[in-house]
């Protein structure tokens, strides 16, 4: 009987051990299931966070706006540059026209003088030409011509004989020793001089006196 009891106790122990193993297995499965459930929950939370708002979207939008702004500014610059280039061409053409036609009023007045010279020439070539009237017509034309020059800023440099020599206004081409007038006095004028708006454009060519 003792052997049977031992067998019963052994079987009970084995049964108890088997029960413990089943419980351990059951607990392991439960824990694994719980862990897997928690992991799934964590993964699902992470998955739910990803499709949300992208933190770089603001930077992308700002970058796109800056690119659009740069394109607009580049287009505006190219347009402005083209307009400025056209303006320079128009302005240069305007300046060229001013230079080219600046003497138009003077030319119109000179045409009138040329007409008078032609009439004087035609009158001199006629058989009934009157010398006195022809001379008077030439003198009138000359006065008209000089008045026209003065109106446009041209003035004759004073250089009559007896005038004091001025190296800024006169050019001496000869010197004559004489005691009849002070030294460096104009004796004779070869070519009159002229100023244009107070600027000497041609000095008078003269002969001056020196000490004997």
From TrEMBL:
Gene Ontology CC entries for this record: cytoplasm
The keyword Cell division appears for this protein: no
Record keywords, A-Z: Chaperone, Cytoplasm, Stress response
InterPro entries membership: GrpE (IPR000740), GrpE_CC (IPR013805), GrpE_head (IPR009012)
Pfam family, one: GrpE
UniProt-listed SUPFAM superfamilies: Coiled-coil domain of nucleotide exchange factor GrpE, Head domain of nucleotide exchange factor GrpE
Ranges of Acidic residues composition bias in the record: 21-36
Compartments it resides in: Cytoplasm
Cytoplasm among keywords: yes
Main localization (coarse): cytoplasm
Chain segments carrying region Disordered: 1-58
GO function terms (MF aspect): adenyl-nucleotide exchange factor activity; protein homodimerization activity; protein-folding chaperone binding; unfolded protein binding
GO terms, biological process: protein folding
Function: Participates actively in the response to hyperosmotic and heat shock by preventing the aggregation of stress-denatured proteins, in association with DnaK and GrpE. It is the nucleotide exchange factor for DnaK and may function as a thermosensor. Unfolded proteins bind initially to DnaJ; upon interaction with the DnaJ-bound protein, DnaK hydrolyzes its bound ATP, resulting in the formation of a stable complex. GrpE releases ADP from DnaK; ATP binding to DnaK triggers the release of the substrate protein, thus completing the reaction cycle.
HAMAP family: GrpE (MF_01151)
Subunit organization: Homodimer.
Family: Belongs to the GrpE family.
Name assigned to this protein: Protein GrpE
Record organism: Methanimicrococcus hongohii
